[in-house]
Design the sequence.
């Protein structure tokens, strides 16, 4: 259907001829279901009342909630009171132009779909509008009024697609954050001993190798302590592995309470532990080892009364970089040898 010069005598939805007064007699469909009104709201802006009314009623017949404004200024007032997902506006109006209205609307809500109306003589203005963020344009006189609802439908579909993409993007961000958190937790679990919560052997080797590299580059000293619980097998045999696990957990907590925050305590295996002491020379390492030995001897471990002497004791061996070894394996072997000497020397001792 062609609309050369819209007038009140045009039947905008008829399929056969014109019927005088048809625009005034157009029936409006029922109000949209709750929640639909905002999604199907369209603001029609045009200074020419007949054209504005025709466009609005075409949209109403197709179930849209059309609101009219006779100027860009009035449209802004109505838009601020109730943002519309779709706005149809003429470009040339008295006062503020459709292009100015487009800029204002995009400043308020960048997602609003703006369709501009232009004439054949002002297609350049339509191109400017598209570059300024308009979704589409309609050229008057209209070849067929169905174009109006078609462009609004496309705009609504584009809005729905944007909303789905935004929801998907938000969900992906949530999933990414959760995956990052899980990866951090998994890495932490992979680096920790399941029983004591201390660093495990894998984490110790990584930290030890890093410290060797750092100390070599900066010509620094550092030390490691290797300690073993004295007579632990007899304790397990007498009281059971559950009681032994309790002792190891408590010993781990005690160790972390003695050393510095920058030191690393690790369970090396069984009842053996290693403490990495960055920047600590032999004298300071011996002082730390003695503090651990005394603390263990005095600590009220559960069931310690069952042990010989009524106390749980530990033996410790010391190795220092670079004097006792220049790589992780050499240092661990040297500390293990010193620990063996402490055991052979009567236990509850520090060697190295």
Sequence:
């Amino acid at each position: 259907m062609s609309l050369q010069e819209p007038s009140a005598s045009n039947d905008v939805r008829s399929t056969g001829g014109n019927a005088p007064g048809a625009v005034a007699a157009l029936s409006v469909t029922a109000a949209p279901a709750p929640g639909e009104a905002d999604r199907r709201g369209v603001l029609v802006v045009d200074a020419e009342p007949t054209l504005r009314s025709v466009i609005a009623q075409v949209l109403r017949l197709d179930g849209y909630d059309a609101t009219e404004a006779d100027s860009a200024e009035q449209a802004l007032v109505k838009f601020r009171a109730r943002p519309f997902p779709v706005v149809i506006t003429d470009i040339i109006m008295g006062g503020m132009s459709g292009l100015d209205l487009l800029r204002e609307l995009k400043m308020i809500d960048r997602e609003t779909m703006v369709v501009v109306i232009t004439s054949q003589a002002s297609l350049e203005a339509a191109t400017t509008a598209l570059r300024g963020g308009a979704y589409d344009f309609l050229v008057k006189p209209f070849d067929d009024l169905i174009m109006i609802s078609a462009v609004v439908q496309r705009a609504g579909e584009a809005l729905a697609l944007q909303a789905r993409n935004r929801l998907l993007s938000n969900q992906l961000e949530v999933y990414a954050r959760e995956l990052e958190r899980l990866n951090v937790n998994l890495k932490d679990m992979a680096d920790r001993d399941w029983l004591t919560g201390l660093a495990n052997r894998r984490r110790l080797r990584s930290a030890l190798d890093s410290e060797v590299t750092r100390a070599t580059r900066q010509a620094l000293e550092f030390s490691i302590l290797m300690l073993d619980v004295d007579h632990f097998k007899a304790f397990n045999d007498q009281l059971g592995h559950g009681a032994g696990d309790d002792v190891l957990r408590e010993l781990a907590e005690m160790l972390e309470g003695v050393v510095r925050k920058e030191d690393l305590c690790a369970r090396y295996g069984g009842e053996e532990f290693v403490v990495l002491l960055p920047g600590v020379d032999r004298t300071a390492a011996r002082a730390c080892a003695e503090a651990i030995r005394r603390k263990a001897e005095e600590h009220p471990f559960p069931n310690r009364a069952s042990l010989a002497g009524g106390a749980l004791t530990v033996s410790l061996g010391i190795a220092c970089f670079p004097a006792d070894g220049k790589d992780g394996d050499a240092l661990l072997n040297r500390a293990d040898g010193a620990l063996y000497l402490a055991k052979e020397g009567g236990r509850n001792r520090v060697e190295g």
Remarks:
- The domain at 22-165 is CATH 3.40.50.2300 (Rossmann fold).
- Strands lie at 41-45, 65-69, 86-90, 113-119, 136-140, 222-229, 264-269, 272-278, 314-321, 350-351.
- The chain has a mean pLDDT of 85.
- The longest strand covers residues 222-229.
